[in-house]
Design a protein that fits this description.
It comes from Acetohalobium arabaticum (strain ATCC 49924 / DSM 5501 / Z-7288). This protein is α+β, with helices and mostly antiparallel strands and about 350 residues long. About 25% of the residues lie in helices and about 30% in strands. It binds ligand LQZAQKY5 and molybdate ion (MOO).
Length: about 350
């Protein structure tokens, strides 16, 4: 890389070799141009206002690329669907969510591409919930200029894959079966439906209908069947998931003929959750801790179900790492370690 003096009129597209200060009394004092900035046509007049007839620019060696251009090229290659890119600045580009959804990160590939020292790609966690406009990752070029061969090396590792994508939400109709003799008989007021309504507001989905049944296996199975018939796209049961003789909900779900993915998930709170699929419809058996705790395993699984993701037994086992909630005084989820793999 070489430093050259050139007339400002010839500076468009060239790279500034050092910071250049502008002072406008009562208005501005600072580096109007910084080392590494690329000059565009609008900048010529500003440079003249600053008294510059000539400036120092960096001349790129053959086979090298400016940090901003390289960051742009790389950022475009690593993004999949529903992600937008910021402008390049100081060799860095931020990636943001174009719409609400679940972030998908190819973690292994992320580690592979970061084996090139000149390219630094930083990511949020796989499977986190993002609102439109949320930042999720950064792409930075380490030196001011990077050799083209490093970009080729990066492309060879990436192939036709990408690192990041956002799976959008689809609002689904949810059928809820509340179980428990104490609720059915009216001894206590149901807390499941109000809790779930709050969760639907936060994550999405809408209540199709809810049915309260006693702790009777056949009644649980029949209520699920009725809600399925009515067009439920997700089925949820509340309560009766633990070890007492009256905890009969898992049996009620099994008796529908649904395929059980797993009963018992290594996440706290929420160990006693069951996930099954019944003709492709997810069935979630929720333990009663969901009505007591602010955030549980439900909040890790349900938003992903809204994207149409199909969970395997292994996906549920993977939740064990990071699946321990700290019960903070003020809950910051999802900006915390809960559910981060
Ligand atoms: N010895 C063990 N005890 C418990 C275990 C265990 O593994 N071994 N598991 C614990 C876990 S984890 C959970 S979570 C809880 C609750 O599990 P259940 O889903 O079986 O809850 P229930 O027995 O049905 O009810 C517990 C409690 O919550 C009230 N409840 C239930 N449904 C409603 C509702 N719709 N509205 C309001 N309140 C409701 C119910 O009246 C009980 O007071 O079990 C641990 N125990
Ligand atoms: O389903 Mo329970 O967490 O684990 O309280």
């Amino acid at each position: 890389m070489e430093i050259k003096e050139i007339p400002v009129e010839e500076a468009v597209g060239r790279v500034v070799a050092h910071d250049m200060t502008q002072i406008i009394p009562q208005e501005f004092k600072g580096a109007r141009f910084q080392k590494g900035d690329v000059i565009d046509s609008k900048d010529i007049s500003t440079l003249k206002d600053m008294g510059k007839e000539h400036i120092y620019v960096l001349s790129l060696d053959e086979g090298t690329i400016h940090e901003d251009d390289a960051a742009c090229q790389i950022a475009k290659k690593v993004v999949g669907k529903n992600i937008v890119l910021s402008e390049a600045n100081e060799g860095k580009i931020n990636l943001k969510a174009e719409q609400k959804g679940i972030l998908k990160v190819d973690k292994d590939l992320l580690l592979d591409v970061n084996s090139i020292d000149e390219i630094l790609i930083t990511s949020s966690h796989d499977n986190i919930f993002l609102q439109a406009g949320d930042s999720l990752a950064g792409v930075r070029i380490n030196p001011l200029t990077i050799e083209e061969r490093k970009l080729k090396q990066f492309e060879a590792i990436l192939g036709d894959q990408n690192l990041f994508g956002i799976e959008p939400f689809v609002d689904k109709k949810v059928g809820v079966v509340v179980t428990g003799n104490e609720v059915y008989s009216g001894r206590i007021e149901d807390e499941f439906v109000p809790t779930l309504q709050r969760k639907f507001k936060r994550w999405g989905g809408e209540l199709l209908d809810s049915i309260i049944v006693p702790d009777e296996v056949d009644e649980i199975t029949e209520a699920l069947s009725n809600l399925k018939e009515s067009g439920a796209e997700v089925l949820i049961t509340g309560g009766g998931m633990s070890v007492d003789p009256d905890d009969l909900t898992p049996k009620g779900i099994r008796n529908t003929g649904a395929e059980i993915v797993k009963y018992g998930v290594p996440v706290l709170p929420g160990n006693k959750l069951m996930l099954a699929y019944w003709d492709g419809i997810p069935v979630l058996g929720l333990p009663a801790c969901v009505i007591f705790e602010e955030i549980t395993v439900f909040d890790l699984i349900y938003p992903r179900l809204l994207t149409g993701e199909e969970f395997t037994r292994n996906d549920l086992i993977e939740l064990s790492y990071g699946g321990y909630c700290y019960h903070c005084d003020v809950c910051q989820f999802p900006q915390c370690s809960f559910g981060k793999i």
